[in-house]
Amino acid sequence: MTQEQYNKSIATEELQLSAWGKFSYFWVVGFLFFIPITCLSFDIFDKSTNFVSPPIWFIIIPTIFGILLYWLQKSQLKFKIVKTRLGRYEFSKLTRQISEEFKLTILFEEVDIFVAETTPEFFSGTEAKQITILLNKDVIMISSIFAFTRKSSVDITGSNKKAVNTLIDRIEKFEKSVIR
Questions:
Q1: Per DSSP, which regions of the chain are E strands?
Q2: N or C of the chain: less Cβ packing under 10 Å?
C-alpha cells in the first residue's frame, strides 16, 4: 500500500486498491458489462443482413446483475472503524499477535499499516482473505476482502464481515489487556 493509497483510504474510509487490484477485484463486474456492450455494438455497427439482434433481456439482465454486483463489492471495501487508545508501538504489537494467532502471511507492514493474507481455512472459510488494518490517530480501520493472489470472488455469504468482527473482538481484548 502506497502512502497515497493510505491517505485516500483514511479520507474516504474505503480501502483503496492498486490498478491491478481494482481489475482483480471487479473483473466479474466488467465481464457482466462486457456482454451488453458487445451486443449493443454489434447492433449499432454491424449492418449486415446476417446479424440477428439479440433479445433485450440479453442486455438488461447482465446490466442489472453488473450494477448489483458492483454495489455489493464497492460496499465491501468500506472500513469498519474502531475507536482506540493504542499508540504505534501497541499497534505494532497487536498486528504481530494477530498474525501469529491466525497464521497470517504478511504482505505489507509499516508503522500505521498492516496488510496480510489468510490461509483458506481462516474463519472456516474456503477462500483466502486479504486483511487490511490501518491506524489513524485514535481509530483502527479494518477491512477484509477475498485475496487477489488466489482467486477473486464475491462475498455473498458474509464471511468477510465475520472475519472483521472477529478481528475487532481481538483488538478490543488486546486493548483491555494493554491499557488499564
A1: 80-83, 105-109, 113-117, 129-136, 139-146
A2: C
In which band, very low, low, confident or very high, does the pLDDT at 51 lie, cut at 50, 70 and 90? low
61-120 residue pLDDT tens:
999 999 998 998 888 889 999 898 888 888 888 888 888 888 888 888 888 888 888 776
Are 25 and 145 in contact, with CB atoms under 8 Å apart? yes
C-alpha closest to that of 40 among 51, 49, 30? 51
Cell readout for 141 is 480501520
Q: What would the DSSP string read from start to end of 44-68?
A: HH---TT--PPPTHHHHHHHHHHHH
Q: How many CA atoms, within 13 angstroms, populate the side-chain half-sphere of residue 90?
A: 18
